[in-house]
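Sorry, can you check?
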Amino acid sequence: MVRMASEDIGLADPRALRITLDAAEVYERLGSPRASSRWPRQWCISRWRQSRTRCYTAYKAARAFVAQDGTRAVPLRLRNAPTRLMKELDYGRGYRYAHDEEDGFAAGERYWPDGMEAPTFYEPVPRGLEIRLGESWLNCVESTLRRIKNHEEAVLW
């Protein structure tokens, strides 16, 4: 059941793993027959959650992409500049710290290597928690488009 909650349910309901681990802990501490009622409850909760392996599939696709594409240079604006020389070489120049931006998102910031098209590995579906993830992603895209419309410096990823 732990594996099912961790792998199969995933983002459909991230609470499923915690519920399963709680049920296992109760069983370990109380034993049978007191804790036996926790497993059927946990099974019912997990059983009716939509199966979700999209994160794992995206992770595998990203690893395969990196293995095939190889290593690319990190853009200078994204590099840390802990020394005077690195600052003189423009490391970190122009970097926008997302936490200081409106909505905690640096609209238009590009985190991919220069000249690289941004691949898509994960696309939320309209079920479970992924509904909210999809809405959050759309908010980020809309924020970027507003900055472009207002002629602010922005580059779509």
In short: The CA atoms of residues 24 and 39 lie 8 Å apart.
